[in-house]
Write a structure and sequence with these properties.
Blueprint (H helix, E strand, L loop, with lengths): L8 E10 L4 E11 L2 E13 L1 H14 L6 E6 L2 H16 L13 H12 L2 E6 L7 H17 L6
Helix pairs in contact: 1-3
Main location: cytoplasm
Subcellular location: Cytoplasm
Function: Endonuclease that specifically degrades the RNA of RNA-DNA hybrids.
Length: 156
């Protein structure tokens, strides 16, 4: 969990969740900078996907930063990490088409994420989900709270 981290780095843990895929979804993020900590969450009551919620968690966390920063984003989503670090440049070069000449899924959110990340120096780290990592576990709890709130229920 954040705490032992470099004092000059914002550590962010993100997660997305869906109940059904597609189904109602939520996202959560834990931001830690030194002794400062902020938790964010939100959700969609209608049909969305886990991948969209993973993207939303990262977008919202980066947008919450008030000035450019050095950031480490910890995610259990290979889709998010690979998309931003490996696939994005090719999608842009190909006019937002995949190598198979199909439209990129979630292009609207990839564009938002690119814009949100461009203000910062971001390192994208993969963590194993549901494996006891406190930051990842808390982000998952927040994502599920986002679903509950979107559905008009009290927290889990």
């Amino acid at each position: 969990m954040p705490g032992k981290a470099d004092r000059n780095v914002v550590e962010i843990y993100t997660d997305g969740a869906c109940r059904g895929n597609p189904g109602p979804g939520g996202w959560g993020a834990v931001l830690q900078y030194g002794k400062h900590r902020k938790e964010l969450f939100g959700g969609e009551p209608g049909d969305t996907t886990n991948n969209r919620m993973e993207l939303m968690a990262a977008i919202q966390a980066l947008m919450a930063l008030t000035r450019p920063a050095v950031v480490r984003i910890h995610t259990d989503s290979s889709y998010l990490r690979n998309g931003i670090t490996r696939w994005l440049a090719g999608w842009q070069r190909n006019g937002w088409m995949t190598a198979e000449k199909k439209p990129v899924r979630n292009a609207d959110l990839w564009r938002q994420l690119e814009g949100a990340a461009s203000r910062h120096q971001v390192e994208w780290l993969w963590v194993k989900g549901h494996a006891g990592n406190p930051g990842n576990e808390r982000a998952d709890e927040l994502a599920n709270r986002g679903i509950d709130n979107a559905l008009g229920r009290q927290g889990r």
